[in-house]
Design brief:
By secondary structure, the chain is α+β, with helices and mostly antiparallel strands. It has eight helices and 15 strands. Helices cover 31% and strands 27% of the residues. Strand 14 (250-257) and strand 15 form a beta hairpin.
Length: 287
């Protein structure tokens, strides 16, 4: 079955889905995006992702392209038309198409909306989680508003390409103080040498991950000792466990950082427990 994409009010065959050459997303990265996990045809962490999408649009002063209910219908219909049971649905909203000029176009400019959906191989994902994955570190060279999920992802692309070339699954970016900020498309976590679960706080200008937020709720319920505090690369290398979170990875165990083995080189018990709990709740609460 061929894929289907939603583009500015029309469902099109994926191969024919295009936007104008002067779309500001293409020319200026003037847009935002969001990604939902799909379980059994339903969207996980729905409200958190929708809230973040509207926050990001507001931060960039891009008007919402449609009502929340209408947008929800488009997302669900795209999932349905692509017959995705388990996978991802992606939305991108830009400021729209206008004559190329750095300043914002007129208020009558209509935002551009693209929605796509694709399946995921759950068996492959689970196999990776059972074994654990490697990450490498890269300098964080992104712009100063990393809390906004914009389509300006070139630094992330370069970091993730460096990871691939090193045989790793993800890159953890490091600021000028030697502290891990987050991954190229994920949030970074460790269980430190004292057994404390740690991840960087959102005041440090990182992306407010929806999977991260959902996992924090579970952490509080389970009573796991937790500290929302940054960690250095060396602390990551000497940690008992490590993992990253994202809508596309859920809770993914990390077994090495820059070649240094984490713990015994296998996914840790806290990580495996949190992955199981997150997936159970995400599936149960998806809408």
């Amino acid at each position: 079955m061929s894929r289907v994409a939603y583009v500015n009010g029309v469902y099109r065959p994926h191969r024919d889905a295009v936007v104008h050459v002067e779309d500001r997303g293409y020319q200026f990265a003037d847009g935002v995006y969001e990604v939902w996990s799909v379980f059994d045809g339903r969207l996980a962490d729905f409200d958190a992702h929708m809230t973040r999408l509207h926050r990001n649009l507001t931060e960039l002063r891009i008007r919402s392209p449609m009502t929340r209910d209408a947008l929800t219908q488009v997302l669900r219909e795209t999932v349905r038309r692509n017959r995705v049971r388990d996978g991802l649905v992606y939305i991108q909203v830009t400021r729209g198409t206008a004559r190329r000029d750095h300043v914002f176009p007129g208020e009558d400019t209509v935002p551009s909306v693209v929605v796509t959906a694709r399946p995921m191989d759950l068996r492959k994902a689970e196999a990776a989680a059972r074994k654990g994955v490697a990450v490498v570190t890269q300098p964080d060279i992104r712009w100063g508003r990393c809390d906004i999920k914009t389509v300006g992802l070139l630094p992330n692309v370069l970091a993730k390409q460096a990871a691939r070339e090193a045989g790793a699954a993800e890159a953890w970016m490091v600021d000028e103080m030697g502290l891990v900020t987050e991954g190229g498309s994920t949030n970074a976590w460790i269980v430190d040498e004292h057994g404390v679960l740690r991840t960087r706080d959102v005041q440090a200008n990182i992306l407010r991950g929806c999977t991260r937020a959902a996992l924090l709720d579970l952490v509080r319920e389970t009573g796991i000792t937790f500290d929302e505090r940054a960690f250095t690369v060396e602390e990551a290398k000497t940690a008992r466990e490590a993992f990253y979170t994202a809508a596309s990875a859920w809770v993914m165990p990390v077994t090495s950082v820059d070649g240094a083995k984490i713990g015994d080189g296998k996914p840790g018990e806290i990580t495996k427990r949190l992955r199981k709990l997150y997936l159970e709740r995400a599936r149960d609460e998806a809408i």
